[in-house]
């Protein structure tokens, strides 16, 4: 979620008043804002997407709740020591959190372990361990519409009789100390992005948030007028019409068997009725196609922790497979491929398959990603129910990612096209009229230059490196992962360095290359990539032959509040994942909206950005998905590129020989070995095209006016990438609610009783 103060002032229309009031107290609002800790309760794009969605849902007047876990420790703080990443705990609650309100009156029990007893009345889950879920509510204000929604985060608490009720004869002290065991559930965020680690505590977290949330939703449903009918059998008939639950990846997939358990075991609904209601309630968003990221929970772990849920999953699977067998008799391989249970070695539950079978809608997050989901990853399911599969291209909130972080640009746009674009970003197309307006071109360039000077001062303060603010700010910020190919950027840096040294007199367009992002603590290769970047920076930044032509900076502890500083100052946005690997990306959109040009592959939302702005207004290079598939067919041989491309050979040889690590010549052996022998993401295959494309970037940068015209065309085409548009599509195509742009009256104005009706019955 990042910081809350400035976002709240903007959405309430109070920023100027507050700035002025604070100034009159002899204080500086910006200094105050810097004191607030980021709420970093997610890993990367997926968590930030949810935050943008909450802002858009409130702004569109949807009755929506965001549910999650109130981690005591969020994503770790990254320190760079001697070029290596070191993790520190993110004790973000140390000084308290003024934005949250504990709601102990809504505390709920969550059960674990135990066993299942079957009787004539049905299944009973007994002898369980209980953990309490304590909700904390954070307000989510809409933009200037007097709407405030709720983000409800659950914290784990041990019940007061924990460890004291059963067989416990005497060790009272130990029993109280053991309360930590229960409360550890909400202690810390698992720091993996796009990687599945099958740990018991992680499964506990996933079920904890699901069980508490579903009880909360059902309590609210029963308390509303929709829930009140006489016969028990039909109480839940309207449930899917009143409740929509969107599964943000498979992490909350246990919600499907949990809702079935509530309907069948507790509310005593017949299976078929319960299954119909469940399917109509849930929809699933897929966020990745990387096989190592897909959740596959071992059956024996689920059996130990959630025995009743395993039985329900088996029953769902049996009925699912019976259905497929009736459509495709004798096709045993299809049954194996489509089963929720993977046999062979340890039996595992494929959570994506569970989500697809248990949902009425499945979507990818960019056109190209949704195609890959349909034709490759889940092709058997799409063949069975093509109408279930949709696309919902991701978006970003223009409140945080333009108004808040780039007020100079936001104001400049408002002068030209008015202020309405903030709620309807498609109005940015009106900027096309000004693409040849010399004054506007100069003003856009001036805002960018001011942002760069401000960020250069920040860098000099934090990193003690002198930055040339007129150099091109070339920025690559995102989680460190092989598929995102920070290594390819690194090879380009080395290539530029070698060119400067080879011919120091030759014209070179000065660059400040900024790379930032966190590596999962257990991801060895990602940590080596960080070390390599820092080692290269050390050499480049201290070579007198290079001077101010090339500077390399690794941005420490990349997070939302740092993104808000670097993105408005960026000239060139690096979006260079191997085609077919980045589901969408959202950083790409933030840079586009803030007046950077993009160098990128035809991957994720880059494809649609090129479609909107015109491919000639982005720097597109490299293999397309088809080329990657083709190369896989014939076999990728890294050696061929190394032998054919002298500059690539030189760069690799320098890494290999210890040029960047003279004290430890073999330091980067693992990296080089990976690039030659098991590079799934084919860095060498795109290197040549990337370097050539970068030459075009430098050439255009020399012509400030032509560059800025492309910038304006990009900003004018960024409207599609508002999360408001994304949420309108979810609302209409999946949740079946109508967004409203009604501004409800403020609380100080009396409301007409006739108007006191909610425009949307459904809560998402």
UniProtKB/TrEMBL annotation:
Q: Which cofactor does it need?
A: pyridoxal 5'-phosphate
User: Does Transferase count among this protein's keywords?
Assistant: yes
**Which GO molecular function annotations are given, in alphabetical order?**
glycogen phosphorylase activity; pyridoxal phosphate binding
- Per the record, the domain of life is Eukaryota
Subunit composition? Homodimer; enzymatically active. Interacts with PPP1R3B; recruits the phosphatase PP1 which dephosphorylates and inactivates PYGL/glycogen phosphorylase.
**UniProt xrefs under PANTHER family:** GLYCOGEN PHOSPHORYLASE, GLYCOGEN PHOSPHORYLASE, LIVER FORM
The region called Disordered is annotated at 739-764
> An example of a Gene Ontology BP annotation on this entry?
glycogen catabolic process
Reaction catalysed by this enzyme: [(1->4)-alpha-D-glucosyl](n) + phosphate = [(1->4)-alpha-D-glucosyl](n-1) + alpha-D-glucose 1-phosphate
Sites bearing N6-(pyridoxal phosphate)lysine, chain numbering: 590
According to its UniProt record, which protein family does this protein belong to?
Belongs to the glycogen phosphorylase family.
Q: State the name under which the record lists this protein.
A: Alpha-1,4 glucan phosphorylase
Briefly, what is this protein's role?
Allosteric enzyme that catalyzes the rate-limiting step in glycogen catabolism, the phosphorolytic cleavage of glycogen to produce glucose-1-phosphate, and plays a central role in maintaining cellular and organismal glucose homeostasis.
Q: Has keyword Glycosyltransferase?
A: yes
Q: Which GO terms describe its cellular component?
A: cytoplasm
